[in-house]
Please model this.
Amino acid sequence: MSTTGQDVLSVRDLRVWYGTERGAARAVDGVSFDLRPGEILGLVGESGCGKTTLGRGLLGLLPRGAFVDGDVTFKGKPMPAVASKEYRALRGAELGMIFQEPMTRLNPLMRISEHFEETVRAHHPGVSRERVRHAALEVLRVMGIPPTRYRSYPHEFSGGMRQRLTIALALVLRPAFIVADEPTTALDVLVEAQIIKILADLRREFDTSLLLITHNLGIVSEACDRVAVMYAGRIVEIGDARQVFRSPQHPYTQELLRSTISLSTTGLSFIPGSPPDLVDPPAGCRFHPRCPHAMRVCATQAPVPLEVAGGQRVECWLHGPESQVPPGGGEPLHVREELSVADEA
Model:
């Protein structure tokens, strides 16, 4: 990871909401973070917490009816409007996306060579076919795909190879920032390990910054420099990946890690309930109805983001500030009986 220069991406108070018949669904509600050159930031959390919306919102790939607000700075300059010519010039050349289902992103009637030609010529119309081929073969080499497959069709590749192709297509123009949305979905563990290694090697080959969206905490521990934990549209904890895994500070992070299966697992644990309705989220801390440590203040006041001893930034009243907790606010809100699937059995 590069430690010099300005942040590639700086996000401040980003909000994304969808218009529904019941009102606005606030899928991303006040998210802030920075991404350094060559850094991989893992974004984790349960389904429905806003991870994909955040990633697509940064790239202007939201469906009609979605609204975006907040400040996003790319390489020190404000991000241009999504509909502008300047933004369209950035997307692909400087901003890339790796989708989770590669076969739906590859045209089955086009050879791989034609995919690369279409991608490159969208930004460099006059480039020769030979130069496209040279650039394509370079990224295919990094992905472990031999040049003899350059004129093959998508259906002639396995699922893992197709995912490598989508990564190569995202990289061919050397973007500074890529969103990878569940890039190992539906892949077996051996192919998944190969994709993880490829993502981790991107910084060495291309110095690319990556936002890696995933449910797999093992991938984050293997490939990411930092991790952001998202719940109900908010980033509730962010910090160095190894430090967060070693000493999680937010109860939601703790519960996620407790629910992870490993070789030493003897019983299955889970988080009772489900993420809240984003049209009508609970008052105060959005995790408080499911939190084993919830206090009375958690049900009435949103927590203040604080940096804790381990270096993480956490939104949780367990870490204060005490000066803002009203009298009686520190009393337990509810007591949750610890229960696991193994206990029920």
Q: What stands out?
A: The radius of gyration is 22 Å. Residues 42 and 227 are 4 Å apart (CA to CA).
